[in-house]
Write a structure and sequence with these properties.
2 domains, about 230 residues, globular, alpha/beta, 4-stranded parallel β-sheet
């Protein structure tokens, strides 16, 4: 059973489906930062597709939502987790099983050649965004784009503490989450905040070079839809 509720309706032509509430909130505040300098990003709508086990059902339910017929593009964003290649195959399967075109690679708009679903599709994987190998999660990306000037000092303290913890108690199952949460807890400003709240409060540098592939991908999706419309 799906753990998060479906949105009541779709209100924008470009949908970003995120794996979980943290990713949704991160993307929402990231887009707000982009909108502050360019209104073209106002065409995006960010929704929570639930966990990885929920995404397949969410995508199958999406076409039944009010406003979906006006949707031009669908972007799915999730963690690479233990293997980016396996995560990519899972995303492709989710698109395919829901009746959408399945993109061959991340950050590449996929224009459907046939079938009832005419939306252009695409996907990205955290933390590498456009990378097809490796592993990791949104927290790994966040650790690379910290905005705090004293971040290096904080991270040094955190890494030493976590290393000591592992020596005494064994390997941590989710070190990326441990590291980011410990880092945030050392600061006065972000100590009580979850990932999404800290993104809103300015914990991350949304101008970081690591986010450029994501910006380029977001720009490519509606651009592909516009070119298709001009050619039809």
């Amino acid at each position: 059973m799906r753990k998060t509720a479906l949105p009541n309706k779709i209100t924008h032509p470009n949908i970003i489906v995120c794996e979980g509430i943290d990713a949704k909130n991160f993307m929402m505040y990231f887009l707000q930062a982009l909108i502050a300098s360019d209104a073209k990003y106002e065409t995006f709508e960010v929704v929570d597709g639930g966990g990885n086990d929920d995404l397949a059902l969410f995508m199958k339910s999406l076409p039944r939502l009010s406003g979906f017929s006006e949707t031009k593009t669908i972007t799915l964003i999730r963690d690479a987790e233990t293997n980016a290649a396996d995560a990519a195959k899972s995303v492709q399967s989710v698109f395919r099983n829901a009746g959408f075109a399945a993109p061959d690679s991340p950050c590449t708009p996929c224009i459907p050649k046939s079938g009832p679903m005419r939306q252009i599709t695409g996907y990205a994987l955290f933390p590498g965004i456009s990378e097809t190998s490796g592993k990791g999660a949104l927290e790994d990306l966040c650790l690379k784009i910290l905005a705090e000037e004293r971040r290096a000092g904080y991270l040094h303290i955190v890494e030493n503490a976590l290393a000591a913890t592992e020596r005494q108690f064994g390997k941590l199952k989710r070190p990326h989450k441990n590291t980011l949460n410990a880092y945030l807890s050392l600061t006065d400003k972000y100590v009580t905040m979850k990932l999404g709240e800290s993104a809103k409060a300015g914990a991350f540098n949304f101008n970081a070079v690591e986010l450029r592939p994501l910006i380029q991908f977001l720009e490519a999706m509606p651009a592909a839809a516009s070119r298709r419309n001009e050619g039809s």
